Amino acid sequence: MHIISLLQKVDVAEKIKNAPDSGYQIGVVIGSFIPFLILGGIALWMYKRAKKRDENGY
To answer: For the whole model, what pTM was predicted?
Structure first.
């Protein structure tokens, strides 16, 4: 968990404060959520794969 927090030391509030326009602000917010969406998608895929394997009796 400590490694993940080191990788995500991005100060979103500072980036939004220094944003040139509102389009940049939206991009920063969306970009900060993309890693979580990807990890959630991987977790969902792994869950469905394990559930399917359990139903087939492997």
So the answer is: 0.55
